[in-house]
Write a structure and sequence with these properties.
The structure is a single chain. By secondary structure, this protein is an all-beta fold. It has a single domain, classed as Neuraminidase (6 Propeller). The protein is built from two helices and 32 strands. The longest helix has 9 residues.
Length: about 475
């Protein structure tokens, strides 16, 4: 029998309160005017546990729920569905949580030792005609793009080494998708497995490379000629775990590293360059500039993980700032870092037609997040690399924003000419809406809003898939 969620848990209440229903809303109420050229579906995904959790709740392992906003003809339809993993199905049958989100040893006895297939809750991307729900510890889960029905795990013809990153990158020039696996086949060493997936969806150039140490690597980047890895000293140690310490710990004395591997080269060609000791969860983009490599990311002085001795970083160190790392591979100099903006921000996105290429505009969720005293973001920012200016749209009071997703006005439109799609949670209504911002004039506020009668729980990432 389902039991109530803890009413005072900060990650299970307010904007994070789970939505306990699936529904279809064929025609949302529109405020303003949806641009007629917008045609496609915004898919968003995040944790939405169907039952009150066992023990300590970790949102990184909460059941994934997909929210689809289908836009066309000036109208917006909405549909949401849980990703039906093995874990979700077994718990639905039992009517209660069986899998602990924080400690496998606390699983219910009926599923002890069973593989859950993960939560499939971190990102959702489309490639080669497939829509994939991603969570980096397990295989992708294929989703029907129209109905949001779960089709099941997808392993690219048994070519994946047990899992895949939640942040693959698609080259706009070749159509190739680049992905990687951290700790392939659950070998908890410094191995990173790279996959190059062609435009037809086949893995064509797998490689296995060795990083500087076993670390939690969440995101990466590509340039026109290179694959770029950022390894930060959030380290994994089974020996530390066996000794009673934290398996993941912050070890800044190890330094961070930037790894550079030629896209057409072999794993042995990867070179590692020391970088400032910091944490970077998400990268905005990377590109080549003459002989230099620029990598733009949201940099954090320290993550919300303890050090090896169990101490925690000061709260202010958890704030993230848009920062540019620059590397001259031909010199002996380490990676340099330059803060681009003093605005606290996260969830960086770009016009993905410029992935791996020189670019001008980047978009972030801002004014909130770790280290600020507010777990939610209250604004959307647009950073202009040409002028160094960060423009800002502040959401109205008691409203919180998601990661912004850019949609070009047309396939031929210049970079940055288009719209930002943002899910907004209104605390006063306990409901959400989809906001459409003109990406060139975000400070003017939404040109349109499509209103729901319920909330879209605060989640992680999303993608827009244009109508074919």
């Amino acid at each position: 029998m389902a039991t109530p969620f803890p009413a005072d848990h900060p990650l299970l209440s307010g904007a994070f309160e789970p939505l306990r229903m699936e529904c279809d809303c064929p025609d949302l109420m529109i405020e303003g005017e949806i641009p007629p050229e917008l045609s496609g579906t915004l898919y968003r995904i995040g944790p939405n546990p169907q039952f009150a959790p066992l023990g300590t709740y970790n949102p990184l392992q909460g059941d994934g729920m997909i929210h689809g906003f289908t836009i066309g003809g000036g109208r917006v339809a909405y549909r949401n569905r849980w990703v039906r993993t093995r874990q979700w199905s077994l718990e639905r049958q039992a009517g209660r949580a069986l899998f602990s989100t924080s400690d496998p040893r606390a699983h219910d006895a009926s599923v002890a030792g069973m593989e859950s297939q993960g939560a499939a809750n971190t990102h959702i991307v489309a490639h080669a005609g497939r829509l994939l729900a991603l969570e980096e510890g397990h295989l992708p889960i294929e989703i029907n793009p129209l109905t949001l029905e779960t089709l099941g795990p997808f392993d690219f013809g048994a070519r994946l080494p047990g899992a895949m990153t939640a942040h693959p990158k698609v080259c706009p020039e070749t159509g190739e998708m680049f992905a990687f696996t951290n700790f392939p086949f659950q070998r908890f060493d410094a191995t990173l497995a790279l996959q190059v997936i062609d435009a037809a969806g086949a893995v064509v150039r797998p490689a296995s490379l060795v990083g500087p140490y076993p670390a939690f690597v969440h995101d990466f980047a590509i340039t026109r000629r290179h694959v770029v890895f950022v390894v930060c000293p959030l380290t994994l140690s089974l020996e530390r775990l066996r000794a009673g310490g934290p398996p993941l710990a912050w070890e800044p004395d190890r330094s961070a590293f930037l790894g550079l591997m030629p896209r057409t080269g072999a794993a042995e060609d990867v070179l590692w360059f020391p970088a400032p000791a910091c944490m970077a969860w998400h990268l905005m983009n990377a590109h080549e500039d003459g002989g230099l490599i620029h990598v733009d990311l949201c940099q954090q002085a320290a993550p919300a993980f303890p050090s090896a001795d169990g101490t925690s970083a000061p709260e202010a160190d958890l704030r993230q700032f848009l920062t540019r790392w620059t590397l001259d591979p031909g010199s002996a100099q380490p990676v340099s870092a330059r803060r681009l903006s003093d605005l606290v921000c996260e969830y960086p996105r770009i016009d993905e037609r410029r992935t791996g290429l020189s670019y001008r505009y980047g978009y972030v969720a801002a004014l909130g997040g770790p280290g600020t005293g507010d777990m939610l973001h209250r604004a959307i920012g647009r950073y202009d690399h040409a002028s160094g200016e960060m423009r800002l749209w502040r959401a109205p009071d008691r409203q919180a924003v998601s990661e912004p997703v850019f949609v070009a006005r047309s396939a031929a439109a210049p970079e940055g000419d288009g719209y930002l799609l943002v899910a907004v949670f209104d605390e006063a209504r306990n409901a959400s809406h989809l906001a459409v911002l003109d990406a060139q004039r975000i400070e003017a506020g939404p040109v349109a809003q499509a209103h729901l009668d319920h909330r879209v729980p605060a989640g992680f990432h999303g993608s827009f898939v244009p109508t074919a």
